[in-house]
Amino acid sequence: MSSSAFVSVVDDDESVRESLPALLRELGYVVEVYASAEEFLVSDRARDTRCLILDIFLRGMTASEFIRELADRRLAVPTIFITAHSDEELRSRLLSEGAVECLFKPFSDTALIAALDAAFRIQRLH
Predict the structure, then answer these.
(1) Which ranges of the chain does DSSP label H, i.e. alpha helix?
(2) ∠ CA 46-30-93, rounded to 5°
(3) Within 10 Å of residue 76's Cβ, how many Cβ atoms?
(4) 3-class SS of residue 77
(5) Domain containing 23: what range?
(6) How far apart are CA 111 and CA 93, in angstroms?
(7) Which 3 state secondary structure label does DSSP give 4?
(8) What is the CA radius of gyration of the chain?
(9) What CATH number has the domain bearing residue 53?
């Protein structure tokens, strides 16, 4: 599998860190998993990430702080937000700020695949 299909998942929920990567690997993606934004940022794979799946409500650094840090580091990574908190206003704001998608947990495989397809289309344009 090429590095162009490299996905990083950042979620502090252990069950998500176990189940989501298994699905992504089934779909043919190379996946790394991180329990926090900080863990991702210090990893040697941050620059290789072609799509980021990010829980909105992380312990430690907030998702907004994390996205600002990515921008400061000039890491333009298409981002799919995931959250257990169904908040359409937040979803709209994130999409207007450049998120590829914001999926409410539990989300369908179909919704995730559509979001990944959109993220990799964006990635190819850059």
Answers:
(1) 14-26, 37-42, 63-72, 88-96, 109-125
(2) 60
(3) 12
(4) coil
(5) 3-125
(6) 19
(7) helix
(8) 13
(9) 3.40.50.2300
pLDDT digits (tens, 9 = 90+) for 51-69: 999 999 888 887 778 888 8
pLDDT tens, residue by residue, 5-30 = 899 999 999 999 999 999 999 999 99
The three-class DSSP label of residue 35 is: coil
pTM, to two decimals = 0.91
Q: What is the mean pLDDT of residues 82-96?
A: 90
> Maximum Cα–Cα distance for the chain, whole Å?
37
Instruction: Give dist(CA 116, CA 52) in Å, integer.
Output: 9
Task: Tell me which amino acid residue 99 is.
Answer: A
Q: How many domains, in total, are found in the chain?
A: 1
Question: CB–CB of 37/69 below 8 Å?
Answer: yes
Of 61-65, 81-85, 101-105, least confident by mean pLDDT is 61-65
